[in-house]
Batch of 4 targets.
Target 1
Amino acid sequence: MSSPSTDVAWLFPGQGSQYVGMGRNLAEARAEVAELYRWADDLLGVPLSRLCFEGPEEELTRTINAQPALLTTSVAVLLALGGRLTDSGHLCLPECLPPPGLVAGHSLGEYTALVAAGVLTFPEALRLVRERGRLMGEARSGTMAAVIGLEEETLEEICRACADEGPLVIANYNCPGQYVLSGAAEAVNRAIEEARRRGARRVIPLKVSAAFHSPLMQ
């Protein structure tokens, strides 16, 4: 494999990007991907592959399931591109892709990045995110929403205006003009309406089970 390129970065998705059916076409096309999902099922003692391929969506969206499901599916994509896992679960990167100089992830995606970087094995990361999801799922309060097309200052004003409904913060600064709000459900719902009133191009309630990256996680 060639040397890592500082011009190439791999960014892995976090919770909220899961959907029923993810990874199924890859598992049907590639034996090594199907084996990865079977391995995940065995490691966790739960039918993770069935949740990914068939749902139900409500179960897949539960934090304790969504986090290992997304990690496994992200690794499945790398296997479908030509990567492989050793017997111990270390990832050998696809040779058809330029090796990345940087890896990163949105929240949960950081664990996938650590697998891609060789810091964690797949079994280590899978067990970690399952436990991480269990602990985060215990919060069981609040929600999140992505807001596109408003300035940071405007969203800060909205957060202050909705604070009487409960904790509300800008949790993710994805890029200029794209932010994620997180907090009490009443506060987030009110902020959604206010963001639309102030001209947001799009407001997307996220499929999450708690207010991640907010004071409610304490």
Target 2
Amino acid sequence: MKILSLFSGAGGLDLGFEKAGFDIVAANEIDDCCYETFEFNFPKTKLFKKSIVELKSSEISGKIDGIIGGPPCQSWSEAGKQMGIKDPRGKLFYEYIRLIEEIKPKFFLAENVSGILHKKHDKAFKNIIINFGKLGYDITFKMLDAADYNVPQNRKRVFIVGIK
């Protein structure tokens, strides 16, 4: 299955999907500190080196079966200012939704920090889930801790999965 990775960073989420048998055919990242590592680990993947706001679905060639990515977490992090959807980075969830709407993959997975489930962000999070659902996906989300999956650290993350 062919995957588009958004907010790819150095490719950690991509690596997990690749090891599970998926083909990462295109990716997007704005942070130039990540480019060299991503391109080393995924030499055949087309990397769009720009903001997701500037990424057009027409630039992505071929059929995309799934979209994965972790929109910026700073807006939702308990360690930050917790501005949520009021932070421009928090609004980037809507760009993720835009590309899902345009590309219409079979599934998507969005990952973020546990702080997104904080009561302070309840309205914004519910709105994000509703917007994913409006695209015709069955949506589920769950907070998981990496320590429960043989990773030697407590690292709680929220996974939102949508399936057509």
Target 3
Amino acid sequence: MPAKEETFKTRDVTVRLLRGGEGMPVIFFHGPTGFPGWIPIFDQLAARYQVLVPEHPGFGRSDNPAWIRNVPDVAMYYLDFLDQLGAEKAHLIGHALGGWIAAELAVRNSSKLASLTLIAPAGIRMRGVPIGDDFIWSPEEAVRNLFYDESLAEQTLAKTLTEEETELQLTNRFMAAKLGWEPRWFNPALERWLHRIDVPTMIVWGAEDKFLPSRYAELWRERVADARVELIAQCGHLAHIEKPDAVARKILAFLDRK
């Protein structure tokens, strides 16, 4: 069944949402580059679950309320989103910025979560392991540093954006900077509260990530009780795009566990 694009209103905020499949909800929080569209990994997840992909407030065509000032505000918005959704439980997946938002949500209230999967999440800082500074990379550097497979970078760079796509890209860059500029891609307060995450958690990371190094997986495993870590070999920051089959297998095995 093809995915449907719709709008979803939570209190005073309306966002874009893609929905496909049936069954227990699996919600995917996108990263700082914005709304990913319906990418191949979602087809695999939607074969067993109902997949929902919201566009974060402030990104793309979604509302940008003045009261969203930082990532914790976005996390609180998504707690209201989960209430509005009405499902008893949902599996939550977040990539990069989306992983950070998901972690901030989970430390506040995980009562609506069945599980948490974080793909190369931002949000914490590991001493002696610097992250890439995507705010100073050129557009070409930014693309090349997201992939291990250079052919995928070349395909991305070869695409010609429409005027509308360029405008949406600028909107996304502005919102990403608002949320991740200072301090760079982390919340100094988050790490000390990660022990509050009390749902089954899996950390997935591309082993050759040039933006958020895979060594960060060690710190997440230390801070989140019983978190399992899965490294994807020969893979960069966009593991769910670069190695969708491998990541889908790991996620489905995790979600389907008894």
Target 4
Amino acid sequence: MRICFVVNSARTQKATYTTLHLAFSAYRRGHDVAFASVDAFSQGEGSDIVAEVVRPKAGRLRDTAAYTKALRAADAPREDARLVDFDVIFLRNNPNAGAQEGDRFNPALDFGRRLKQLGVLVVNDPDGLSRAGSKMYLAGFPVELRPKTVITRSVERVRAFLRELDGPAIIKPLAGFGGQNVFYVARGQSANVQQMISTVRRAGYVIVQEYLPAAAKGDKRVLLLGGVPLRVGAAVAAYKRMRPKDDIRNNIHVGGSRRPTDFSEAESRICDLLRPRLVADGLYFVGVDLVGDKILEINVFAPGGIANINALYEVDLGTAIIRDLERKVELRSVYPEPIPPHVFMRA
């Protein structure tokens, strides 16, 4: 299998990144693995899409750390490659990182869509990513699965929603990521609310969400493959993220901690309700953030967590995902015509 990971920059990859765990697992299973930075694509008058790809420098690559070091080496082999020659193009770039305000062009989606038309297996599906790349995607799911929410740029509507909610809320950017510019508003609070709204509006639309008290006990990141919670043996690919002291965010990079967690029947039912839409949209590998019986976010562009889950449960999620990709590629060789999404639904 030939697989190319599309990332923001191959030079900035880290051994803890989920992408690197996936790539190392594929490398260890004997596949040809390459990386392309999202700004390295070219297309001329013909149909060919070419990108400069890089592979790890040859050597004894025993673990993810060694693999990452070899990938980032100054003399790592580089070449211009026809992307249609790859079996899988795995889109793993974060479109928000380094994006300029008002910039709506995401090269990974536009080139990925063209590669899909040329018959390449592109995951996640670029059309699905276009639909699911905003927090508005949640609005298409049953009301009982998500917190009360308003999406607007109107200060008056934000204030009206807060009055109607009559409880604590979270204000954050619609296009935000990584816990940036996330504010907590207490019930009846008036001080600093205008400043919060103004700060978030600079990035575009504002999302205001009811605050779920259960979030104080952490949220759960669950990884779904083909719309189904990923399992390795008895372990479900899920962990709890606990917030640092004096912070409302549970993100690991802001000081949150990780803990093992159970996976309840109620949470399994939530994933069951998500599955048909995710599968229909071609969203193969997804991260879902849960608080109690509600979904906070669906992460589709570069869902992470493999390093944390592997360490907590002593499992190897990367290999499980690559083995499933091998199955998808094998099915495509047997059925050369486009395969309906439901064929890939996992039992």
